[in-house]
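TL;DR need structure tokens for one chain.
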Amino acid sequence: MSDSWTSRVFGAFRKTSERLSGNLTGVIGTARLDDATLDDVEDALIMSDLGPSAARRIRDRLSEKRFGLEIGERELKEAVAEEIAAILRPVAKPLEVTAFPRPQVILVIGVNGSGKTTTIAKLAHWLQEDDYDVMLAAGDTFRAAAIGQLATWADRLGVPIVRGAEGGDPASIVFDAVKLATDRGTDALIVDTAGRLQNKRELMDELAKIRRVLGRLNPEAPHDVLLVLDATNGQNALAQIDVFREVAGVTGLIMTKLDGTARGGVLVAAAEQYGLPIHAIGVGEKMDDLRPFDPDLVARVIAGVA
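>> reply
TL;DR here they are.
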């Protein structure tokens, strides 16, 4: 893990760290870790967007290990960092391209405004760095702007894109893209999809149709269904996981817009509540600002002890 990336992670979680540190400051009012102190710790974690489930788990683990023992503020933060890391480690799983035959079909979903299209470009760049051939498919035909934006990124990255007209049939675009990627032996096909949630049934039907089309060409596809979440939405991001798991069968998460938000604790809440693989975090606007995350580093940064 480069120093540059580490410093960007520091910046990304700075406000989250300051928020949690502020909430924990003054919690240690007694020499020993008692029930009242543990209640305060739990409240501090909830107020820092780690969610009630993760907060309860961390409280219980602190109680098991340290109840009645003397503890200082630094020691408390170290202990909290360790418990956050224990929640994050099992879900920290980089995305791997393993499909055979090629391509690996990666459906990318998420509400409009979550940074989905930019995340697709960053993911393509990341795969290119690992020497994979990448193709894009503009399956979000609901918005002309989405098609245009993805085409601009494809041009910058020097990767092919399959697209159709605004209002076209996303499934037919995906069909053409998979066929072309299969013929070319492309390693990874990244498919943008519509992000509207106003009509869940319509979205579910559209995604189901895409899945049926994929199944005819490659029974293993889609290999990944990645949900892009905007960290600035805090607990609302968790509600999106509920909806998209129902309509799309989410297999993994990418958390974006961690560039300075005070809501970074939602990463911990998502890990604890859903246990879905978190493949990457986005910490800025640059092309290389999407990377697998180091759960131990993130835990220590959030807890203010890195």
